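Task 17 of the worksheet. Students: predict the tertiary structure of the chain below and write it out as structure tokens. Keep your answer in the requested format; marks are given for formatting as well as content.
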Amino acid sequence: MTANPGFEPTFCTIVPPHVLDTLARSEDPALAGPARRTLERDALERTHRRLTTVLGAPAVAAPKGAAGRPDRTIYDAKHKQDLPGKKVRGEGDKPGKDATVNRAYAGLGATFDLFLKAYERNSINGEGLPLSATVHFGEEYNNAFWNGEQMVFGDGDGEIFLDFTIPVDVIGHELAHGVTQYTANLTYFGQPGALNESMSDVFGSLIKQYTLGQTAAEADWLIGAGLLAPRVTGKALRSMKEPGTAYDDDVLGKDPQPATMDDYVQTGRDNGGVHINSGIPNHAFYLAATTLGGNAWERAGQIWYDVLTGGELDSKANFSDFATLTIAQARTAYGEGEELQAVTKAWERVGVPTA
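Model answer:
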């Protein structure tokens, strides 16, 4: 297989459309209103992203400062929807009084640090790409997204979702879409799209673990812990340890993620279930990382990173294609040892066949 050499960024959100669809049908206007406005804005962003793909993306500013250091800019949309908004913090500026701005700045830095120090990758494109984020986007906007050029964070509605800068793995997840964009460029539909989402969950979780100094055994393996408001019966958006258990709420419904191919979901919604079936490769990574122990960003994370960026992963790769490449990479990097066994058994346990 040969990877797609072109960069075709997609519009990727942390909250799946099926969750917002459920909220939009609520009889409570405090829940339905923000969800409907969020869905409308997300649809506009997807259209903008398709037009950018056709017409070409704007030129990216050259990185400033020393190589191997982040170049961060935080903007404040002031609850409007014009991007990027007003610049409120640049690289090296001292923290201000706005905790949301400070969290976004720190989250961009944490993401930069993991990729640089663990994988020797200079920013998400490998060439020192400046990292920009807009906070306080829209009124009660219930999402965060990577639009191919920058990060955007809503404040949440306070009823279901809190400030989207609270979980550092949400920031890492969205920026990791940029890494995928600049490498394997996985098609955002069906199994390739679920792999795209899984890559972001994997590296989002690793960024959190790296920032907190946690081993694989110490990590909670939750995506978006701290994002759900107190009224929600749930602990996060997704669980890599136990897909399908992140929430079970009278408003949101039950987490639909499967852990194995036995429960793979066939659907035309959510780009063919990209946020749903990502639970399967997510769980495979969790199994491999916890079997190996220690710091998950090292051996397990290195294997996943090498496959994502190595040039052999096709943009339309399915689960089996990716799994086969991780097994081959484990053998190449570590021989016939425990790494190979951990990766092989992880894919077997989730029911993904390998060549």
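Marker's comment: The CA atoms of residues 34 and 140 lie 6 Å apart. The longest helix spans residues 29-55.
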